[in-house]
Design a protein that fits this description.
Chains A, B, C, D: It is found in: Cytoplasm. Chains A, B, C, D: It catalyses: L-citrulline + L-aspartate + ATP = 2-(N(omega)-L-arginino)succinate + AMP + diphosphate + H(+). The structure is a homotetramer. Chain A has 2 domains: about 5-80 and about 95-165, HUPs (Rossmann fold, 3-Layer(aba) Sandwich); about 180-360, Argininosuccinate synthetase, chain A, domain 2 (Alpha-Beta Complex), CATH 3.90.1260. Helices cover about 40% and strands about 20% of the residues of chain A. The first copy, chain A, has helices at about 15-30, 50-55, 70-80, 95-110, 125-140, 145-150, 155-165, 245-255, 280-300, 300-320, 325-340, 370-375, 385-405, and strands at about 10, 35-40, 60-65, 115-120, 145, 180-185, 190-195, 225-230, 235, 240, 260-270, 275-280, 345-350, 355-360. The first copy, chain A, is elongated. The N and C termini of chain A lie far apart (about 70 Å). Chains in contact: A-B, A-C, A-D, B-C, B-D, C-D.
Chain lengths: ~400, ~400, ~400, ~400
């Protein structure tokens, strides 16, 4: 793509060092107009200061938006209906926020007449893929500028030098001040990569973690919690109705206080290498456990098993950046189809890193039938003799094969 | 099956109330000779006393066997190579012991010239299916007597009355003395069903649990542990080589002390109803976490993902009793094929119910390459420009579809 | 189930020998009122005569219904959206008609106040399962009488004797007159089992086949056909709009004339044994080929591949009788979600047993882009250099693994 | 990759126009030594002339090899054990030959001390991916030169001009003389792309097809054939033992004479676009049909169904070029594990494009049991009453769900 082919670019802009350098670099190298887009997806930092910074950089069109409700309602909640976990451990906190950003970038490009978008994801990571597949899926003609794949500012030192040279103010308190880790945060999680994590044998330092207390420092008393589900989504905590983003924020607060949701894993990136990441997902960890418990009471066995078989594929799609794809939509249709009956209440106990289910009920949709499951006489609810035929016909093919061997 | 068609039956015999009644009932109702088979699969009770009891009941052929090593080596370990979990929660502790018992029953029948086997599993549960599918798969001509599906002794009271009437001694201390729960135990786990668990909204009492301390009562200091893997199996703890059964016993001991491995779930039985069960699987919980961590470092991404997709099916097969089936063997072949490289050491921290991975390494088989994964300049190990083509071709189909829409 | 517990039963009644005997047997053995239900699902026999026969047997409530449109629209068409094939060969002709019959039996039971239903499927086949799972799924309290599993009239001779004894008229021309095969037919197919097919090494006689000419006797000239698809369903033949049942009837007629759609297979029944069946599915064979061709032009690659992976499971569900189940509905939701774009026209050539696709187009939904696929220069529609990065990143994990080995 | 970094390159060389130009271009542009490698994989052209041409071009190290047996034995046969079909239609004829070529290129590079390999596949197709993934998987350090992605000779005219300019002799009779199609052939198939196929609505001309007669021109008499299977592979035709390559060659000859194995499809390439291809796979089409028939008699139901579910993934892996990958090896282990019992004979009838199975038998491994499958009384081989319990327990979950609704 020729650089002077770009007239106007929408930049995903945090106001931190990296995207401030990118802003300047786009102006210089592409000579094009830049629109900044700063989103609050619950990363826990003020987005308002981005305005002054963008203005200082000469930006005319500045978008600053609170996307927290849309993020949880349209992305996090649908994903949790699938009980999605990547590689047995990762709750996809970073992955699920990227398509929303991609969507707004493309929409803002349309609104402002921009022909390109740009982002600050590096050339080795998954996020570049997620941003760009999302954007291409929504607008096949969009141009995408990924400065980390183009420039030679491939270290923090070079970035700092570029910033100094071009008069870009660097606030030490922003962007994970003093933290040696590469971090990402949104309402679902905070992640850490790099630095001492690059040796998978080394345990990270205690002060790396930011959202959760160390389980050892968590309260000595468990806390009970009741979560109300409606069609697979949590709609109330301890009986108090909340919006999706309120639910997640509150579960983060409570879970974090009890040391819940830490993960330290080696994962496989879509771009082909293994990397080590640490994650804190306090609210999500609680949601997953509770959702499975609610399903255990209300969901049909075969639907549940089919969901379990499809889940790894679904999680992989999200991890790889295919949220806006026919195959993700196809799987979502299957998943959502099952959730109409996932209604009721789950009781949990939180204690020093543990989420324990201690009760689940559903007035309308329970499939648990005490009269059938009981060990005592059941007054005819279940004919034990049926089991004989059930076993014998299921065994028939094995017996015929056994005769062949014998 | 006509009752006088049976000449000799091998009974899975614990010496407890149920199987003692069955022994008598078989003698009376079938008028056949009974061979008793009592196995130590690590249930934590003495098996020796079964001999005296069987002799007292007039049994001539008495088999008492220690199957612990075979159980862990040939059943538990292969299953853990698959990271098997049923319905997201259950580590299949009961399920995996049944095929071994079925195998020995059939083998002993061959050795003793018996034409039938018998077991004490009820007509509503999964175990009858597991015993019988296993037996039929190994000997298609075997006859199977399942007294619980034939008799009318369908409550504890009736059993006790029968025992009293026939002079069967009932030791109150055996078979979970005073416990109101229906329990099963082996080296992998102990399970609880029935009683107050029949209401899934009710939390079981603190004194139900037997193998693990309450996390609240676990030590205030974490314990570190290093597990050595060879071809996917744990072969040493903290550098000390152990047999499979020794590994599992030791992990049970350590895990139990730290309150690890409790589960309280509603599960779907193969015979069609939901039931609530509580499980303690301390060693297995540690093994699963550690095995995933070892694989995360050494296993190829696509092999790992395929394993994850096949796992629910594999777990379902074991849960449903199809260990001795062509489809389980087919999946096992695929799983085992991947484990040659799963070698190395995983470091864990155990603390009040938590199993935390804090390090993993493999001198011979690590696929983690710091020079590629690093955030800093990598001296050419990875060409960031490659990502552009990677993304653009992966996006091509989405873009063509986008043009159709637009 | 106690026989005098049944007050009124709805019988799936063809008027042939088997169900005439059943009617009488129900009256005699159960002493209950019988409602007859005779459906035209396109089996190619008059259903009207069933009325007189039922009346002659003293039946007061007689249902005779033309279900052909409902059958094709609500059962056959949804199934073909999935490209369903059982075990690589069988187009599920019998399987897909059973749930509709079950549904009407249950509905008529509700309308007439009957507490039971009955059918003429044998105790070794799949159809009993399909009828009964369907019925139980729709009305959990329904009673089901399966005479073949209860009585001892287990051969044609005994049935004939019973009929003679009870004055049941046997028309030699009905029910596959003179045919030695067990047959089933509906608008989708006709099937043959039994007789010389019981030896899978033996080729059936030429005169077994009824719906299709032998390919050797088919016309020497091919016939062209254009099928119009709308959302995955065929809505017109050679430009002429037709209802679903009209489409299938017409394709049967044309396909049969060209010797299309014969299959001779050994299949695995749900009840555990292998059986040999021969099938004629002329219209269905054409539909499947055409539907795949229409999808090949309009469906996204990954959606298509996911459909292919889910298809065997979906086909198995239908074969096994789980049409009315949460898991089938879940898969159907996924499948249907993909079909909105399956619009266009497919051109076929039929010739002596062959269905050949010779063209496919879609004005609105083609994803085929000549400018990208061309072997000649494409004026920038596709950057060949992108392939380098695509390959290199896809190879990265393999290369890292190669270094480990080397 | 810097061009002067390459010292010696092994070129997959046919002696035709494209690879002759590439040879020259490599010498000129890379200034490196070239080793030619010409393989007979059954493409039906003499490979010997390649020697003289290579010598004329100044090549010192010339490899000409007959790989037909290795191709069929180690690639085609394992693939057919899986019943592999890509997108419901394509028998993977081109895909399966590429990894073998890649393997020999890498091996010859090692033998000759070459540091690079090169091939003539274009930048839009799948073959570049298959060659390069295969090569990288076998030697992670190999350099790969793909001239079609580097040069600007992007049309046939430019190639011809380059050839003329550099004195490269162009034989009109080679490389599909006068054919306007892009073709590829090996012992499994011949393929056609481009030219009038670029409009998927247009039927290709009758004279495009080369290996099979038009079904209309095929013999009016069917031909019978008996294929003997051993562990899933065909080892004899009509009782005559043959090597794998002999089997395939003979089936190609017979099938081609009967017009068998034509396919005209739109497929999804791995690089992201749809393309239209025509294929002739006469022997493969017969093999697939026969293999399924042999399995239908000898393979367990659940193993067969699991194979069917895994097959699309397996086929996709081969299509995409992942033959030498952990995930393909994992699936192969599962597939091969099932084939020990796939022994016996299948009888087929070939007639004007049709392959009809007319019989199958296995003296050692048949699971077909007439006494169980029969419609007549079976003297107790199967207890029809068992079906009641089988159905009732399978229905239990549906009934409980029905009660919830009701």
């Amino acid at each position: 793509m020729s650089r002077n082919a770009v007239k106007k670019v929408v930049l995903a802009y945090s106001g931190g060092l990296d995207t401030s350098v990118i802003l300047k670099w786009l102006q210089q190298e592409y000579g094009c107009e830049v629109v900044t887009f700063t989103a609050d997806v619950g990363q826990g930092e003020e987005v308002a200061p981005a305005r002054a910074k963008a203005e200082a950089a000469g930006i005319k069109e500045i978008y600053i938006e609170d996307l927290r409700e849309e993020f949880v309602r349209d992305f996090v909640y649908p994903m949790f209906r699938a009980n999605a976990i990547y590689e047995g451990e990762y709750l996809l906190g970073t992955s699920i926020a990227r398509p929303l950003i991609a969507k707004r970038l493309v929409e803002i490009a349309a609104e402002t007449g921009a022909d390109a978008i740009s982002h600050g994801a590096t050339g080795k990571g998954n996020d570049q893929v997620r941003f760009e597949l999302g954007a291409y899926g929504l607008n096949p003609e969009i141009k995408i500028i990924a400065p980390w794949r183009e420039w030679d500012l491939l270290s923090r030192e070079k970035l700092m030098a570029y910033a100094a040279e071009h008069g870009i103010a660097i606030e030490q308190k922003r962007d994970g001040s003093k933290s040696p880790y590469s971090m990402d945060a949104n309402l679902l999680h905070i992640s850490y990569e790099g630095y001492d994590l690059e040796d998978p044998w080394v345990e990270p330092g205690r002060d790396m973690w930011r959202w959760t207390v160390d389980p050892q420092d968590a309260p000595d008393q468990p806390q009970e919690l009741a979560l109300t589900f409606s069609r697979g989504d949590i709609t109330a905590i301890d009986g108090k109705a909340m919006t999706p983003a309120e639910v997640l924020a509150e579960l983060n607060r409570i879970g974090g206080a009890h040391g819940i949701g830490r993960a330290d894993i080696v994962e496989n990136r879509y771009v082909g290498m293994k990397s080590r990441g640490c994650y804190e997902t306090p609210g999500g960890t609680i949601m997953l456990k509770a959702h499975r418990a609610m399903e255990s009471l209300t969901l049909d066995r075969e639907a549940a098993h089919l969901k379990d078989e499809l889940m790894p594929r679904y999680a992989e799609l999200i991890y790889n950046g295919y949220w806006f794809s026919p195959e993700r939509e196809m799987l979502q249709a299957a998943i959502d189809q099952t959730q109409a009956v996932v209604n009721g209440v789950v009781r949990l106990k939180l204690y020093k890193g543990n989420v324990m289910v201690v009760g689940r009920k559903s007035d309308t949709d329970s499939l648990f039938d005490e009269s059938i499951a009981t060990f005592e006489e059941d007054a005819g609810a279940y004919d034990q003799g049926d089991a004989t035929g059930f076993i014998r016909l299921n065994a028939l093919r094995l017996r015929v094969a056994g005769r062949r061997k014998g």
